[in-house]
Specification:
This protein is an alpha+beta fold. Helix content is 32%, strand content 31%. It has three helices and seven strands. The strands form two sheets. The protein has a five-stranded mixed β-sheet with strand order 2-1-5-6-7. Strands 3-4 form a two-stranded antiparallel ribbon. A hairpin with a 5-residue loop joins strand 6 and strand 7. Helix 2 runs parallel beside helix 3. The longest helix has 17 residues. The chain is globular, with a radius of gyration of 12 Å.
């Protein structure tokens, strides 16, 4: 399955996550859509003093911009699952939204409920 098979707005999240990942060659990219329809994309960050998953950073960016709820999110990674820390970041604002897991080529691997 590819992002084109999803609702167009959900497919856009995978496209944004892929672009964020590719832009800096990160391990993963992520994107979230807030309750107002705004989207936020991010890549994973690993520094000596700070380490964030891509989804944690996307959530933080959305919250910093005033988001209080989410409609959907996506993670693009080579990992076979969305890690618990990423899911927890989404759950802090909204329970039970889809978290799409996609491979680097954009193919949809799973849809997890946060």
């Amino acid at each position: 399955m590819h992002p084109e098979d999803l609702d167009p707005e959900d497919g856009k999240l995978i496209t944004l996550a892929r672009a964020a990942r590719a832009r800096i060659g990160a391990l993963e990219g992520a994107a979230v859509r807030d309750g107002d329809g705004r989207t936020y994309a991010a890549a994973s960050v690993t520094l000596p003093s700070l380490s964030l998953t891509a989804l944690q950073l996307a959530v933080a960016s959305a919250v910093a911009a005033g988001a209080s709820t989410f409609e959907a999110s996506a993670v693009v990674t080579e990992s076979p699952q969305v890690d618990d820390a990423s899911l927890a970041a989404v759950r802090d604002l909204t329970q039970d939204i889809p978290v799409y897991l996609a491979a680097p080529d954009g193919s949809l691997l799973a849809s997890v409920r946060s």
